Amino acid sequence: MKDLIAIRDLTNNEINDIFSLAQKVKKNKNKYSKVLSGKSVALIFQKPSLRTRVSFEVGIDQLGGSSIYLGHKEINLGVRESVFDVAKTLSRYVDAIMLRTFEHKYVSELAEHADVPVINGLSDLFHPCQALSDIFTIKEKRSNIKKVLISYIGDGNNVCNSLLYLCAKLGISLNIASPQGYSPDNEIVRKAKEIARELSAVINVFTDAKSAAAGADVLYTDVWASMGQEAEREKRILDFKGFQINDQLLSIAKKDCLIMHCLPAHRDEEITDSVLKTNNAIVFDQAENRLHVQKAVLIKLFKDKK
Ligand code: CP
Ligand code: NVA
Prior knowledge:
Bound molecules: phosphoric acid mono(formamide)ester, norvaline
Shape: globular
Helix content: 40-55%
């Protein structure tokens, strides 16, 4: 494993390595406190962040390494300087680069030209660190993930795309419900269905929330307007009417259904405050696991590089 750009690129062995390492790191933090000793990681953020920034900074620190935060005004990737020049320059200073950006091509280009591992900390297309943490979290709660039906209700966005690939590869059934015009990319759905079929898992895309939520073991949602789409927020609130995770929708899922959200959440838009407060909401477990899973990703990238 050279980089973590998209779940699409990972083999099942790599995914399982990350999960088993994350479990060990979570259980025994001290054992890994020198793994990144003498190593520096550049963290480039062209969008805001709470979880990704803090979990990477703290995680790198806990592994004995150091990180450098580069905000959106610092590098101005592709404008002040080409992606190629940034990749080559940073490769002379640091041992790995994490990038949160808009267009996915910036992450791919950075990985193509950098001589050090590159991690996608969210692009408009994918959020692989999030999906890995999400499935790791479900594995902690449910012993047989192959029997779990995840229902993602909302925008067919970066988080949804990464879940599609990860569920497909692990044989987890996934229902997606989005309003017309907001379904995930057809090609991603087609590929995920093809992979899932081999493992007898089913991926279905619906245009109404109830069909997708019926009998679900997990109800998952994300904001209706992602970072960069703020101007569309009012329109989206109207378009996504009927796609809120609320008590009514929860009542048609399984009794012990888990509630997931990658956060940040817009309470009483895509999910009600009351549902977020139920005992089965595991959103802060998801957030915590970003730390453990990303530490595992870093350890694996450095180990595989040797
Ligand atoms: N879930 C997530 O990536 O959160 P941040 O945008 O706060 O990093
Ligand atoms: N889909 C959201 C995820 C935030 C973690 C966004 O891209 O803004």
